[in-house]
Amino acid sequence: MNANTSRQHPAEWDQEAQLLAQTARDLPTGRHEFQRERLMAQIHEQIQREEREEHTAATAAPGKARRFRLPRPAITLPAMAAALSAVVVVGMVTTGGGEGVRESGVATGPALTTDLGTATTKGVPQLLDQISLAAAESDHPTVKPDQYIYIESVVADTFLKTVDDKTSLASHELHRRQIWNSPDGVKGWLIDPAVNDSPEGETLSLPDEQGNTPKAHLGSPSYDYLAKLTTDPDALLAKIYKETKGEGNSPDQQAFATIGDLLGESYPPPELYSALFEAAARIPGVVVVDDAVDAAGRHGVAVARLDETSGQREEWIFDKKTHVYLGSRSVQVKQLKGVDALMKPGTVTFTMAIKNRAVVDDMKQTPSQAG
Q: pLDDT, tens digit, for every residue of 160-194?
């Protein structure tokens, strides 16, 4: 969730809209909702400014999408209508004329807030070493080709919402999210009331509506892809930096975000799971937050990093005794300007708690059904 504080060029909006449309089903609701609503507010603000300044958009090269966070490449500005049509497919936009697009999920709650906690660089290597050891010793069965990885979580978020040219904060209430994926990443299913129209959920199976079967990569990995990654921490981190070059607000923040994504809705083999934490210890700017709360209300210690551009701190939350991964959240730490000023310090822009992660035999089967 790159809430970029620098004024975004209108040439970037269409690319973000396309990326939102392409990754909507994979994104936890808070990530795409925040991006989409912020995008609409920026479009309105920039249109007004350009009417005064008669500014012309510039040209640059596009980038590629990631599962949770969207890069902010700058490209030429196509028709505004195309950008808006791509945006509204994942949520709700109400225009000044009063025309509404049906909303996915309830997005009328108040902003989520929290205490910021105390962040320090002291003890980071030791904590990550303990977390790495706990990850290596965790029960982690191998996934067979005909099985599915099941991940159940609870999520909530706060985002910018624009109605009749007025922008305010809103949130999706805490809700259950379930996702199933085959080891090769070709078959999948998602149930998330903030994303799905039906309570039964929707397919994530490939090929998609356009007949595309994308290859797995760091931003959208399958279990089979992860199983082939190097478990050498230095080589792993070098690969992450190389493959995410040009994405995010800085190379270090993007590397941290990429590892964070892999801790959530994916299922790294135990050797890789351990290596990810060792790699994270090598990223500059990583801190420990003494107290952080996941979406389920569980208190823990967090490994975190502040994105200096967005002013948000991404936190990975672990049990203080067992060092088991509990979930993650993004918290606004710095006061911003412009439309982003609504995101006051202490605002929780996204929060997630992992409730269950298991291997099951059938699509839409839960561990309790498997016996």
A: 888 888 888 888 889 999 999 999 999 999 999 88
What DSSP state is assigned to residue 215? P
Max CA distance (Å), the chain: 65
CA–CA dist 223, 265 (Å, integer): 11
**CA–centroid distance for 105 within its chain:** 18
Per-residue tokens: 200: 């039964």
Contacts of 204 (CB under 8 A, 6+ apart): 25, 26, 179, 181, 187, 188, 189, 190
Burial of 178: CB neighbours in 10 Å, binned 0-12, 13-18, 19+? middle
How is residue 229 written in tokens? 């990654």
Rounded to 5°, the CA angle 112-88-36 comes to 40
CA distances from 90 to 25, 104, 197, 301 (A): 8, 7, 10, 33
- Helix (H) / strand (E) element for 167: namely strand 166-181
- Round to whole Å and give the CA distance between 229 and 361: 25
Q: How distant, in Å, are the alpha carbons of 223, 224, 356 from that of 237?
A: 19, 19, 28
Sheet of 299-306, strand order: 119-120, 287-293, 299-306, 312-318, 325-332, 348-360, 148-163, 166-181, 188-191, 202-203
Q: Measuring CA to CA, how many Å separate 136 from each of 207, 240, 269, 271?
A: 34, 21, 9, 6
| pLDDT tens-digit series, residues 210-231 | 888 888 999 889 999 999 999 9
Name the average pLDDT for the chain. 77
